Amino acid sequence: MKKCLLLFIGSLCMLLGLFFALVPGPSLIFFIAGLMCFSFYYPKARYYLALCQKALTKSCAFLDKKLAR
User: Fold this and answer.
1) Would the pTM count as exceeding 0.90?
2) Domain of life, per the record (predicted)?
């Protein structure tokens, strides 16, 4: 039951992320939330979640450096 609920929430978040990728909205937040739900049961999703987290960390550090000038 718990696995079905997490998969449903993960799928819903991924669909919302795709929708908000087409129209203005917080698509990145929904993609990461969907990956987080999937990562409980799928190691490949955990890998992609780690990649997204590393990329966001690098981009935030880059923006902080550029905006600090």
Assistant:
1) no
2) Bacteria
Closest listed residue to residue 20, CA positions, set 9, 32, 8? 32
pLDDT above 90 for 25:
no
The answer to whether 54 and 16 have CB atoms below 8 angstroms apart is no
What average pLDDT does this structure show over 16-26?
Answer: 92
Locus of tokens 């550029």: 66
Domain region containing 6: 2-67
Rounded to an integer, what distance in angstroms lies between the CA atom of residue 20 and that of residue 37?
18
The tally of domains found in the chain comes to 1
pLDDT of res. 68: 87
Q: Is 30 exposed, middle or buried (0-12, 13-18, 19+ CB in 10 A)?
A: buried
